[in-house]
Amino acid sequence: MASRNTYKEDEILEEPFNIKHLLRAWVYVKKHAKKMLFALILSALGAVAGLFVPLIQQIALDEAIPDKNTKFLFILAGLMILTYLVSVVFTTIRSRIMTNVGQDIIYDIRRDLFEHLQRLPFQYYDDRPQGKILVRVVNYVNSVSDMLSNGLINVILEIINLLFIVVFMFIVDVKLSLVVLCGVPVLAVFMFWIKNKQRRAWQLVSNKNSNLNAYLQENIVGARITQIFAREDENAGIFEGLSNRTRSAWMEAVKYSNLVWPGIDSISVVIRAAILLFGLVIFGTGNTTVGTIIAISSYAARFWQPIMNLGNIFNNFINNIAYLERIFETLDEPVTVTDAENATKMPDIKGEVEFKNVTFSYEKDRPILKNVSFKVKPGESVALVGPTGAGKSTIVNLVSRFYNIDSGKILIDGVDISKVTLNSLRSQMGIMLQDSFIFSGTIADNIRYGKLDATDEEIKKASSTVCADSFISKMPEGYETEVHERGSTLSQGQKQLISFARTLISDPSILVLDEATSSIDVQTERALQIGLNAMLKGRTSFIIAHRLSTIKNCDKIMYIDDGRIVESGSHEELMAKRGEYYHLYTAQMQDIA
Known about the structure:
Blueprint: H1 19-29, H2 33-64, H3 70-119, H4 122-126, H5 130-172, H6 174-181, H7 184-221, H8 223-228, H9 232-282, H10 290-331, E1 353-363, E2 366-376, E3 381-385, H11 392-399, E4 407-412, E5 415-416, H12 422-426, E6 429-432, E7 441-442, H13 443-448, H14 456-465, H15 469-473, E8 482-483, H16 492-505, E9 510-514, H17 522-536, E10 540-544, E11 556-561, E12 564-569, H18 571-577, H19 580-592
Parallel strand pairs: 3-10, 3-11, 6-9, 9-10
Antiparallel strand pairs: 1-2, 1-4, 4-5, 7-8, 11-12
Helix pairs in contact: 2-3, 2-5, 2-10, 3-5, 5-6, 5-7, 5-10, 7-9, 7-10, 9-10, 14-16, 18-19
Protein backbone atom coordinates (compact mmCIF):
# COMPACT_ATOMS: atom_id res chain seq x y z
CA MET A 1 0.00 0.00 0.00
CA ALA A 2 1.27 3.48 -0.89
CA SER A 3 2.22 5.72 1.99
CA ARG A 4 -0.17 8.56 2.75
CA ASN A 5 2.15 10.35 5.12
CA THR A 6 3.30 13.12 2.74
CA TYR A 7 1.57 16.19 1.34
CA LYS A 8 1.42 14.41 -2.03
CA GLU A 9 -0.95 11.70 -0.79
CA ASP A 10 -4.56 11.97 0.33
CA GLU A 11 -5.63 10.63 3.69
CA ILE A 12 -8.35 8.05 3.21
CA LEU A 13 -11.46 9.57 4.81
CA GLU A 14 -14.01 7.54 2.86
CA GLU A 15 -15.58 5.52 5.62
CA PRO A 16 -19.02 3.96 6.02
CA PHE A 17 -21.21 5.26 8.82
CA ASN A 18 -20.01 3.31 11.85
CA ILE A 19 -22.01 3.66 15.03
CA LYS A 20 -19.11 2.35 17.14
CA HIS A 21 -17.28 5.67 16.74
CA LEU A 22 -20.30 7.55 18.07
CA LEU A 23 -20.62 5.14 20.97
CA ARG A 24 -16.94 5.60 21.79
CA ALA A 25 -17.34 9.38 21.59
CA TRP A 26 -20.04 9.14 24.26
CA VAL A 27 -17.29 9.39 26.89
CA TYR A 28 -16.86 13.04 25.88
CA VAL A 29 -20.60 13.72 25.78
CA LYS A 30 -21.96 12.01 28.89
CA LYS A 31 -20.37 14.46 31.36
CA HIS A 32 -22.51 17.19 29.74
CA ALA A 33 -25.67 15.08 29.44
CA LYS A 34 -27.71 17.15 31.96
CA LYS A 35 -26.90 20.45 30.26
CA MET A 36 -27.70 18.93 26.86
CA LEU A 37 -31.03 17.56 28.10
CA PHE A 38 -31.96 20.98 29.49
CA ALA A 39 -30.99 22.61 26.17
CA LEU A 40 -33.10 20.04 24.29
CA ILE A 41 -36.16 20.80 26.44
CA LEU A 42 -35.71 24.55 25.89
CA SER A 43 -35.32 24.03 22.15
CA ALA A 44 -38.42 21.83 21.97
CA LEU A 45 -40.50 24.36 23.93
CA GLY A 46 -39.25 27.21 21.74
CA ALA A 47 -40.00 25.28 18.55
CA VAL A 48 -43.52 24.33 19.69
CA ALA A 49 -44.21 27.94 20.73
CA GLY A 50 -43.31 29.09 17.23
CA LEU A 51 -45.73 26.59 15.68
CA PHE A 52 -48.70 28.40 17.24
CA VAL A 53 -48.13 31.43 14.99
CA PRO A 54 -49.81 30.03 11.81
CA LEU A 55 -52.71 28.75 13.95
CA ILE A 56 -53.16 32.22 15.45
CA GLN A 57 -53.01 33.71 11.95
CA GLN A 58 -55.77 31.36 10.80
CA ILE A 59 -58.02 32.40 13.70
CA ALA A 60 -57.33 36.08 13.02
CA LEU A 61 -58.13 35.77 9.29
CA ASP A 62 -61.17 33.52 9.65
CA GLU A 63 -62.74 34.92 12.83
CA ALA A 64 -61.38 38.16 14.31
CA ILE A 65 -61.05 40.17 11.07
CA PRO A 66 -64.39 39.08 9.45
CA ASP A 67 -66.19 39.78 12.76
CA LYS A 68 -64.34 43.09 13.14
CA ASN A 69 -63.51 42.01 16.69
CA THR A 70 -60.69 44.49 17.44
CA LYS A 71 -60.23 43.37 21.04
CA PHE A 72 -59.84 39.73 20.00
CA LEU A 73 -57.43 40.77 17.24
CA PHE A 74 -55.23 42.62 19.76
CA ILE A 75 -55.25 39.55 22.00
CA LEU A 76 -54.19 37.38 19.07
CA ALA A 77 -51.46 39.88 18.15
CA GLY A 78 -50.22 39.81 21.74
CA LEU A 79 -50.17 36.00 21.69
CA MET A 80 -48.12 36.06 18.48
CA ILE A 81 -45.57 38.41 20.05
CA LEU A 82 -45.46 36.29 23.20
CA THR A 83 -44.89 33.05 21.30
CA TYR A 84 -42.16 34.77 19.27
CA LEU A 85 -40.44 36.05 22.42
CA VAL A 86 -40.66 32.62 24.09
CA SER A 87 -39.11 31.03 20.99
CA VAL A 88 -36.29 33.61 20.79
CA VAL A 89 -35.47 33.54 24.52
CA PHE A 90 -35.44 29.73 24.75
CA THR A 91 -33.38 29.42 21.56
CA THR A 92 -30.86 32.01 22.82
CA ILE A 93 -30.41 30.26 26.17
CA ARG A 94 -30.05 26.92 24.40
CA SER A 95 -27.44 28.41 22.04
CA ARG A 96 -25.33 29.69 24.94
CA ILE A 97 -25.54 26.37 26.77
CA MET A 98 -24.51 24.39 23.69
CA THR A 99 -21.71 26.81 22.86
CA ASN A 100 -20.20 26.12 26.29
CA VAL A 101 -20.76 22.37 25.90
CA GLY A 102 -19.15 22.40 22.44
CA GLN A 103 -16.08 24.25 23.73
CA ASP A 104 -15.80 21.89 26.70
CA ILE A 105 -15.84 18.91 24.33
CA ILE A 106 -13.17 20.56 22.15
CA TYR A 107 -11.06 21.13 25.26
CA ASP A 108 -11.41 17.53 26.47
CA ILE A 109 -10.56 15.97 23.11
CA ARG A 110 -7.64 18.32 22.45
CA ARG A 111 -6.28 17.77 25.95
CA ASP A 112 -6.34 13.98 25.47
CA LEU A 113 -4.76 14.28 22.02
CA PHE A 114 -2.03 16.63 23.24
CA GLU A 115 -1.19 14.51 26.27
CA HIS A 116 -1.06 11.38 24.10
CA LEU A 117 1.05 13.06 21.40
CA GLN A 118 3.62 14.05 24.02
CA ARG A 119 4.05 10.41 25.03
CA LEU A 120 4.25 8.94 21.53
CA PRO A 121 7.68 7.59 20.55
CA PHE A 122 10.09 9.37 18.20
CA GLN A 123 9.17 6.83 15.52
CA TYR A 124 5.65 8.28 15.22
CA TYR A 125 7.01 11.73 14.37
CA ASP A 126 9.68 10.29 12.10
CA ASP A 127 6.95 8.84 9.86
CA ARG A 128 4.47 11.75 9.64
CA PRO A 129 4.46 15.35 8.47
CA GLN A 130 3.73 17.76 11.30
CA GLY A 131 1.00 19.45 9.24
CA LYS A 132 -1.07 16.27 9.05
CA ILE A 133 -0.78 15.81 12.81
CA LEU A 134 -1.85 19.40 13.42
CA VAL A 135 -4.90 19.12 11.16
CA ARG A 136 -6.22 16.36 13.41
CA VAL A 137 -5.70 18.33 16.61
CA VAL A 138 -7.19 21.56 15.23
CA ASN A 139 -9.49 21.09 12.22
CA TYR A 140 -10.88 17.61 12.89
CA VAL A 141 -11.56 18.33 16.56
CA ASN A 142 -13.41 21.53 15.63
CA SER A 143 -15.54 19.60 13.16
CA VAL A 144 -16.54 16.75 15.44
CA SER A 145 -17.24 18.91 18.48
CA ASP A 146 -20.31 20.46 16.86
CA MET A 147 -21.53 17.03 15.81
CA LEU A 148 -21.13 15.65 19.33
CA SER A 149 -22.88 18.61 20.96
CA ASN A 150 -25.39 20.32 18.68
CA GLY A 151 -25.58 17.44 16.21
CA LEU A 152 -27.00 14.90 18.66
CA ILE A 153 -29.50 17.39 20.07
CA ASN A 154 -30.54 18.63 16.64
CA VAL A 155 -31.39 15.13 15.44
CA ILE A 156 -33.87 14.70 18.29
CA LEU A 157 -35.08 18.29 18.00
CA GLU A 158 -35.73 18.15 14.27
CA ILE A 159 -37.65 14.89 14.61
CA ILE A 160 -39.78 16.43 17.40
CA ASN A 161 -40.24 19.59 15.34
CA LEU A 162 -41.30 17.59 12.29
CA LEU A 163 -43.84 15.56 14.28
CA PHE A 164 -45.36 18.68 15.84
CA ILE A 165 -45.61 20.39 12.42
CA VAL A 166 -47.52 17.38 11.06
CA VAL A 167 -49.82 17.38 14.14
CA PHE A 168 -50.55 21.10 13.78
CA MET A 169 -51.18 20.68 10.04
CA PHE A 170 -53.70 17.92 10.65
CA ILE A 171 -55.39 20.03 13.33
CA VAL A 172 -55.90 22.77 10.72
CA ASP A 173 -56.94 20.57 7.75
CA VAL A 174 -56.52 16.84 7.12
CA LYS A 175 -56.94 16.81 3.32
CA LEU A 176 -54.51 19.65 2.64
CA SER A 177 -52.01 18.07 5.05
CA LEU A 178 -52.07 14.92 2.89
CA VAL A 179 -51.32 17.10 -0.16
CA VAL A 180 -48.20 18.42 1.65
CA LEU A 181 -47.07 14.88 2.56
CA CYS A 182 -47.24 13.84 -1.13
CA GLY A 183 -44.03 15.83 -1.66
CA VAL A 184 -42.06 13.74 0.83
CA PRO A 185 -41.17 10.85 -1.56
CA VAL A 186 -39.97 13.33 -4.20
CA LEU A 187 -37.85 15.16 -1.63
CA ALA A 188 -36.45 11.88 -0.26
CA VAL A 189 -35.19 10.79 -3.70
CA PHE A 190 -33.66 14.21 -4.35
CA MET A 191 -31.96 14.42 -0.94
CA PHE A 192 -30.57 10.89 -1.22
CA TRP A 193 -28.98 11.75 -4.56
CA ILE A 194 -27.61 15.15 -3.58
CA LYS A 195 -26.33 14.11 -0.13
CA ASN A 196 -24.31 11.23 -1.55
CA LYS A 197 -22.66 13.65 -3.98
CA GLN A 198 -22.08 16.19 -1.20
CA ARG A 199 -20.52 13.69 1.17
CA ARG A 200 -17.91 12.53 -1.33
CA ALA A 201 -17.18 16.09 -2.45
CA TRP A 202 -16.59 17.45 1.06
CA GLN A 203 -14.43 14.46 1.97
CA LEU A 204 -12.26 15.32 -1.02
CA VAL A 205 -12.04 18.91 0.24
CA SER A 206 -10.79 17.60 3.60
CA ASN A 207 -8.12 15.52 1.87
CA LYS A 208 -6.88 18.44 -0.17
CA ASN A 209 -6.90 20.78 2.84
CA SER A 210 -4.84 18.24 4.79
CA ASN A 211 -2.26 18.07 1.97
CA LEU A 212 -2.12 21.86 1.68
CA ASN A 213 -1.73 22.23 5.44
CA ALA A 214 1.13 19.70 5.52
CA TYR A 215 3.02 21.43 2.69
CA LEU A 216 2.43 24.91 4.13
CA GLN A 217 3.73 23.92 7.58
CA GLU A 218 6.77 22.22 6.04
CA ASN A 219 7.67 25.32 4.03
CA ILE A 220 7.18 27.75 6.92
CA VAL A 221 9.66 25.71 8.98
CA GLY A 222 12.03 25.40 6.00
CA ALA A 223 11.74 29.01 4.78
CA ARG A 224 15.46 29.69 5.22
CA ILE A 225 16.46 26.61 3.22
CA THR A 226 14.04 27.65 0.48
CA GLN A 227 15.77 31.01 0.14
CA ILE A 228 19.26 29.56 0.44
CA PHE A 229 18.65 27.29 -2.56
CA ALA A 230 16.47 29.83 -4.42
CA ARG A 231 13.54 27.42 -4.48
CA GLU A 232 10.87 30.11 -4.22
CA ASP A 233 9.53 29.67 -7.76
CA GLU A 234 9.48 25.86 -7.62
CA ASN A 235 7.81 25.85 -4.20
CA ALA A 236 5.31 28.47 -5.36
CA GLY A 237 4.46 26.16 -8.27
CA ILE A 238 3.88 23.21 -5.93
CA PHE A 239 1.79 25.38 -3.60
CA GLU A 240 -0.21 26.70 -6.54
CA GLY A 241 -0.93 23.13 -7.66
CA LEU A 242 -2.07 22.11 -4.17
CA SER A 243 -4.12 25.30 -3.82
CA ASN A 244 -5.77 24.77 -7.20
CA ARG A 245 -6.66 21.20 -6.30
CA THR A 246 -8.12 22.44 -2.99
CA ARG A 247 -10.04 25.18 -4.81
CA SER A 248 -11.34 22.74 -7.44
CA ALA A 249 -12.47 20.32 -4.74
CA TRP A 250 -14.14 23.18 -2.84
CA MET A 251 -15.96 24.48 -5.92
CA GLU A 252 -17.18 20.96 -6.74
CA ALA A 253 -18.52 20.56 -3.19
CA VAL A 254 -20.15 24.01 -3.23
CA LYS A 255 -21.80 23.17 -6.55
CA TYR A 256 -23.74 20.34 -4.93
CA SER A 257 -24.40 22.35 -1.77
CA ASN A 258 -25.88 25.16 -3.88
CA LEU A 259 -28.31 22.72 -5.47
CA VAL A 260 -29.95 21.87 -2.12
CA TRP A 261 -31.90 25.07 -1.53
CA PRO A 262 -33.12 25.52 -5.14
CA GLY A 263 -34.21 21.85 -5.20
CA ILE A 264 -36.12 22.10 -1.94
CA ASP A 265 -37.56 25.50 -2.89
CA SER A 266 -38.79 24.07 -6.19
CA ILE A 267 -40.55 21.20 -4.42
CA SER A 268 -41.93 23.66 -1.85
CA VAL A 269 -43.32 25.97 -4.59
CA VAL A 270 -44.99 23.04 -6.33
CA ILE A 271 -46.56 21.90 -3.04
CA ARG A 272 -47.81 25.42 -2.26
CA ALA A 273 -49.31 25.66 -5.73
CA ALA A 274 -50.95 22.29 -5.10
CA ILE A 275 -52.34 23.60 -1.80
CA LEU A 276 -53.96 26.53 -3.62
CA LEU A 277 -55.23 24.30 -6.41
CA PHE A 278 -56.68 21.67 -4.11
CA GLY A 279 -57.86 24.14 -1.47
CA LEU A 280 -59.64 26.55 -3.77
CA VAL A 281 -60.66 24.31 -6.68
CA ILE A 282 -60.75 20.60 -5.90
CA PHE A 283 -61.64 20.78 -2.18
CA GLY A 284 -63.16 24.23 -2.52
CA THR A 285 -66.76 23.45 -1.73
CA GLY A 286 -67.04 26.41 0.57
CA ASN A 287 -65.40 24.63 3.51
CA THR A 288 -61.79 25.72 2.89
CA THR A 289 -61.16 29.22 4.17
CA VAL A 290 -58.40 31.67 3.23
CA GLY A 291 -57.04 31.43 6.76
CA THR A 292 -56.83 27.62 6.45
CA ILE A 293 -54.92 27.85 3.15
CA ILE A 294 -52.47 30.44 4.54
CA ALA A 295 -51.94 28.40 7.72
CA ILE A 296 -51.33 25.17 5.78
CA SER A 297 -49.01 27.03 3.38
CA SER A 298 -47.06 28.37 6.38
CA TYR A 299 -46.78 24.91 7.92
CA ALA A 300 -45.79 23.47 4.53
CA ALA A 301 -42.96 26.03 4.30
CA ARG A 302 -41.81 24.99 7.76
CA PHE A 303 -42.29 21.29 7.00
CA TRP A 304 -39.33 21.06 4.62
CA GLN A 305 -36.84 22.76 6.95
CA PRO A 306 -36.52 19.92 9.51
CA ILE A 307 -36.25 17.39 6.70
CA MET A 308 -33.45 19.35 5.06
CA ASN A 309 -31.78 19.88 8.43
CA LEU A 310 -31.87 16.14 9.12
CA GLY A 311 -30.28 15.57 5.73
CA ASN A 312 -27.53 18.08 6.58
CA ILE A 313 -27.01 16.50 9.98
CA PHE A 314 -26.76 13.06 8.40
CA ASN A 315 -24.26 14.37 5.87
CA ASN A 316 -22.32 16.01 8.71
CA PHE A 317 -22.34 12.75 10.63
CA ILE A 318 -20.99 10.86 7.62
CA ASN A 319 -18.12 13.31 7.17
CA ASN A 320 -17.30 13.62 10.84
CA ILE A 321 -17.39 9.90 11.54
CA ALA A 322 -14.32 9.74 9.31
CA TYR A 323 -12.74 12.58 11.31
CA LEU A 324 -13.62 10.80 14.55
CA GLU A 325 -11.87 7.73 13.25
CA ARG A 326 -8.72 9.77 12.56
CA ILE A 327 -8.87 11.28 16.07
CA PHE A 328 -9.31 7.86 17.67
CA GLU A 329 -6.64 6.45 15.38
CA THR A 330 -4.22 8.99 16.87
CA LEU A 331 -5.39 8.28 20.42
CA ASP A 332 -4.99 4.55 19.72
CA GLU A 333 -1.47 4.97 18.38
CA PRO A 334 0.49 2.73 20.73
CA VAL A 335 2.92 4.33 23.16
CA THR A 336 5.52 1.67 22.46
CA VAL A 337 8.15 3.23 24.69
CA THR A 338 6.43 3.20 28.05
CA ASP A 339 6.88 2.05 31.62
CA ALA A 340 6.88 -1.69 32.16
CA GLU A 341 3.99 -3.13 34.16
CA ASN A 342 6.01 -3.37 37.37
CA ALA A 343 8.51 -0.61 36.61
CA THR A 344 10.48 0.72 39.56
CA LYS A 345 12.05 4.11 40.14
CA MET A 346 15.59 4.44 38.84
CA PRO A 347 17.96 4.87 41.81
CA ASP A 348 20.34 7.81 41.85
CA ILE A 349 22.62 7.19 38.89
CA LYS A 350 26.34 6.73 39.51
CA GLY A 351 27.06 6.43 35.80
CA GLU A 352 28.05 2.90 34.77
CA VAL A 353 26.54 2.15 31.34
CA GLU A 354 26.65 -1.25 29.65
CA PHE A 355 25.31 -2.48 26.31
CA LYS A 356 24.92 -6.27 26.14
CA ASN A 357 24.49 -7.67 22.62
CA VAL A 358 22.14 -4.86 21.61
CA THR A 359 20.46 -5.07 18.22
CA PHE A 360 18.13 -2.30 17.02
CA SER A 361 16.30 -1.37 13.84
CA TYR A 362 13.99 1.50 12.86
CA GLU A 363 12.45 -0.66 10.15
CA LYS A 364 11.93 -4.40 10.35
CA ASP A 365 14.78 -6.53 9.01
CA ARG A 366 17.02 -3.45 8.51
CA PRO A 367 19.16 -3.34 11.68
CA ILE A 368 21.00 -0.12 12.52
CA LEU A 369 22.91 -1.62 15.46
CA LYS A 370 24.09 -5.20 15.25
CA ASN A 371 24.93 -7.08 18.44
CA VAL A 372 26.68 -4.09 20.04
CA SER A 373 28.41 -4.59 23.41
CA PHE A 374 30.48 -2.16 25.47
CA LYS A 375 30.88 -0.94 29.05
CA VAL A 376 31.47 2.58 30.33
CA LYS A 377 32.71 3.25 33.86
CA PRO A 378 31.13 5.93 36.07
CA GLY A 379 32.50 9.38 35.24
CA GLU A 380 34.09 8.30 31.96
CA SER A 381 33.76 10.46 28.87
CA VAL A 382 33.11 8.46 25.71
CA ALA A 383 33.33 9.85 22.18
CA LEU A 384 31.46 8.18 19.32
CA VAL A 385 32.95 8.77 15.88
CA GLY A 386 32.46 7.29 12.46
CA PRO A 387 30.72 7.92 9.14
CA THR A 388 27.24 9.41 8.86
CA GLY A 389 24.49 6.84 9.38
CA ALA A 390 26.76 4.43 11.22
CA GLY A 391 24.58 4.40 14.37
CA LYS A 392 26.23 6.95 16.68
CA SER A 393 23.09 8.99 17.45
CA THR A 394 21.11 5.78 17.73
CA ILE A 395 23.35 4.59 20.59
CA VAL A 396 22.83 7.76 22.63
CA ASN A 397 19.08 7.70 21.89
CA LEU A 398 18.90 4.17 23.26
CA VAL A 399 20.72 5.16 26.46
CA SER A 400 17.82 7.51 27.14
CA ARG A 401 15.38 4.84 25.96
CA PHE A 402 13.74 6.92 23.26
CA TYR A 403 13.29 3.65 21.33
CA ASN A 404 12.85 0.01 22.35
CA ILE A 405 15.68 -2.29 21.37
CA ASP A 406 15.05 -5.44 19.33
CA SER A 407 17.23 -7.67 21.49
CA GLY A 408 19.90 -7.53 24.16
CA LYS A 409 20.06 -5.37 27.29
CA ILE A 410 21.06 -1.85 28.27
CA LEU A 411 22.13 -1.50 31.90
CA ILE A 412 22.84 1.59 33.98
CA ASP A 413 24.55 0.82 37.27
CA GLY A 414 23.56 -2.80 36.65
CA VAL A 415 19.85 -1.92 36.33
CA ASP A 416 18.00 -2.87 33.13
CA ILE A 417 16.60 0.48 31.91
CA SER A 418 13.55 -1.27 30.41
CA LYS A 419 12.49 -2.13 33.99
CA VAL A 420 12.51 1.44 35.38
CA THR A 421 10.14 4.37 34.86
CA LEU A 422 10.97 6.68 31.99
CA ASN A 423 10.63 9.80 34.10
CA SER A 424 13.04 8.59 36.78
CA LEU A 425 15.55 7.63 34.06
CA ARG A 426 15.36 10.69 31.80
CA SER A 427 15.19 13.17 34.68
CA GLN A 428 18.76 12.17 35.55
CA MET A 429 20.06 12.61 32.01
CA GLY A 430 21.09 15.72 30.12
CA ILE A 431 20.86 15.62 26.34
CA MET A 432 22.21 18.26 23.96
CA LEU A 433 21.18 17.77 20.35
CA GLN A 434 22.66 19.27 17.20
CA ASP A 435 19.33 20.98 16.49
CA SER A 436 19.05 23.21 19.56
CA PHE A 437 15.32 23.81 19.92
CA ILE A 438 14.36 27.13 21.46
CA PHE A 439 10.81 27.74 22.66
CA SER A 440 9.00 31.05 22.31
CA GLY A 441 9.29 33.01 25.56
CA THR A 442 12.16 34.59 27.44
CA ILE A 443 15.75 33.36 27.47
CA ALA A 444 15.38 32.71 31.21
CA ASP A 445 12.30 30.56 30.57
CA ASN A 446 14.22 28.50 28.01
CA ILE A 447 17.09 27.87 30.43
CA ARG A 448 14.69 27.19 33.30
CA TYR A 449 13.08 24.47 31.14
CA GLY A 450 15.84 22.19 32.45
CA LYS A 451 14.90 22.93 36.07
CA LEU A 452 11.54 24.57 36.63
CA ASP A 453 12.36 25.84 40.13
CA ALA A 454 15.74 27.30 39.18
CA THR A 455 16.50 30.72 40.66
CA ASP A 456 17.78 33.69 38.66
CA GLU A 457 21.18 33.20 40.27
CA GLU A 458 21.32 29.55 39.18
CA ILE A 459 20.36 30.54 35.64
CA LYS A 460 23.09 33.18 35.48
CA LYS A 461 25.68 30.80 36.94
CA ALA A 462 24.86 28.05 34.41
CA SER A 463 24.99 30.58 31.58
CA SER A 464 28.35 31.94 32.73
CA THR A 465 29.78 28.41 32.91
CA VAL A 466 28.95 27.74 29.25
CA CYS A 467 29.96 31.25 28.04
CA ALA A 468 26.37 32.32 27.29
CA ASP A 469 26.16 35.12 29.86
CA SER A 470 28.33 37.46 27.79
CA PHE A 471 25.90 37.72 24.86
CA ILE A 472 22.72 37.38 26.95
CA SER A 473 23.68 40.32 29.17
CA LYS A 474 24.11 42.54 26.10
CA MET A 475 20.57 41.88 24.91
CA PRO A 476 17.92 44.64 25.36
CA GLU A 477 16.31 43.03 28.38
CA GLY A 478 19.00 40.54 29.32
CA TYR A 479 17.61 37.21 30.46
CA GLU A 480 14.04 38.54 30.12
CA THR A 481 14.50 39.17 26.40
CA GLU A 482 11.69 37.54 24.42
CA VAL A 483 12.79 35.11 21.71
CA HIS A 484 10.58 34.04 18.85
CA GLU A 485 9.46 30.54 17.92
CA ARG A 486 12.42 28.20 17.39
CA GLY A 487 14.73 31.07 18.41
CA SER A 488 14.55 32.72 14.98
CA THR A 489 16.15 35.94 16.29
CA LEU A 490 19.19 34.07 17.62
CA SER A 491 22.19 32.67 15.80
CA GLN A 492 22.75 28.91 15.74
CA GLY A 493 25.70 29.33 18.08
CA GLN A 494 23.67 31.38 20.55
CA LYS A 495 20.90 28.79 20.51
CA GLN A 496 23.41 26.06 21.25
CA LEU A 497 24.90 27.97 24.16
CA ILE A 498 21.43 28.54 25.64
CA SER A 499 20.77 24.83 25.23
CA PHE A 500 24.05 24.09 27.02
CA ALA A 501 22.90 26.24 29.95
CA ARG A 502 19.52 24.50 29.95
CA THR A 503 21.22 21.11 30.08
CA LEU A 504 23.74 22.12 32.74
CA ILE A 505 21.11 23.56 35.09
CA SER A 506 19.32 20.21 35.17
CA ASP A 507 22.46 18.76 36.84
CA PRO A 508 22.38 15.43 34.93
CA SER A 509 24.16 12.28 36.05
CA ILE A 510 24.70 11.17 32.44
CA LEU A 511 25.41 13.75 29.77
CA VAL A 512 24.85 13.29 26.03
CA LEU A 513 26.30 15.80 23.56
CA ASP A 514 25.23 15.05 20.01
CA GLU A 515 27.14 17.44 17.74
CA ALA A 516 26.46 20.00 20.46
CA THR A 517 29.26 22.40 19.44
CA SER A 518 28.81 22.17 15.67
CA SER A 519 27.43 25.72 15.32
CA ILE A 520 29.85 27.41 17.71
CA ASP A 521 32.85 29.28 16.36
CA VAL A 522 36.32 28.05 17.24
CA GLN A 523 37.08 30.99 19.56
CA THR A 524 33.88 30.49 21.57
CA GLU A 525 34.46 26.74 21.59
CA ARG A 526 37.87 27.19 23.19
CA ALA A 527 36.32 29.34 25.92
CA LEU A 528 33.44 26.92 26.22
CA GLN A 529 35.82 24.00 26.66
CA ILE A 530 36.56 25.18 30.20
CA GLY A 531 32.86 25.10 30.98
CA LEU A 532 32.52 21.76 29.24
CA ASN A 533 35.28 20.28 31.34
CA ALA A 534 33.37 21.45 34.41
CA MET A 535 30.21 19.86 33.05
CA LEU A 536 31.92 16.57 32.24
CA LYS A 537 33.73 16.28 35.57
CA GLY A 538 32.20 13.48 37.65
CA ARG A 539 29.61 12.66 35.00
CA THR A 540 29.44 9.82 32.54
CA SER A 541 29.23 11.49 29.16
CA PHE A 542 28.68 10.45 25.55
CA ILE A 543 29.97 12.87 22.94
CA ILE A 544 29.33 12.76 19.22
CA ALA A 545 31.51 15.20 17.29
CA HIS A 546 32.79 15.33 13.74
CA ARG A 547 35.42 17.87 14.83
CA LEU A 548 37.83 15.29 16.24
CA SER A 549 40.07 17.87 17.91
CA THR A 550 37.29 18.40 20.47
CA ILE A 551 37.24 14.79 21.66
CA LYS A 552 40.97 14.02 21.92
CA ASN A 553 40.86 14.19 25.72
CA CYS A 554 37.95 11.76 26.13
CA ASP A 555 38.67 8.68 28.23
CA LYS A 556 37.43 6.39 25.48
CA ILE A 557 36.77 6.78 21.76
CA MET A 558 34.60 4.26 19.92
CA TYR A 559 34.70 4.13 16.12
CA ILE A 560 31.25 3.06 14.86
CA ASP A 561 30.66 1.79 11.35
CA ASP A 562 27.78 -0.18 9.83
CA GLY A 563 26.12 -0.64 13.22
CA ARG A 564 29.16 -2.14 14.93
CA ILE A 565 32.01 -0.95 17.15
CA VAL A 566 35.02 -1.36 14.88
CA GLU A 567 37.62 -0.19 17.40
CA SER A 568 37.75 1.35 20.84
CA GLY A 569 40.37 3.00 23.03
CA SER A 570 41.91 6.32 23.99
CA HIS A 571 43.10 8.79 21.35
CA GLU A 572 46.70 7.69 21.81
CA GLU A 573 45.83 3.99 21.67
CA LEU A 574 43.79 4.34 18.49
CA MET A 575 46.40 6.49 16.80
CA ALA A 576 49.00 3.82 17.64
CA LYS A 577 46.78 1.14 16.04
CA ARG A 578 46.77 3.11 12.76
CA GLY A 579 43.26 1.83 12.03
CA GLU A 580 40.01 3.53 11.00
CA TYR A 581 40.23 6.29 13.62
CA TYR A 582 43.84 7.04 12.70
CA HIS A 583 42.95 7.49 9.01
CA LEU A 584 39.92 9.64 9.88
CA TYR A 585 41.89 11.86 12.26
CA THR A 586 44.92 12.37 10.03
CA ALA A 587 42.70 13.13 7.02
CA GLN A 588 40.81 15.77 9.05
CA MET A 589 44.00 17.35 10.33
CA GLN A 590 45.36 17.58 6.76
CA ASP A 591 42.15 19.29 5.64
CA ILE A 592 42.46 21.84 8.45
CA ALA A 593 46.10 22.45 7.59
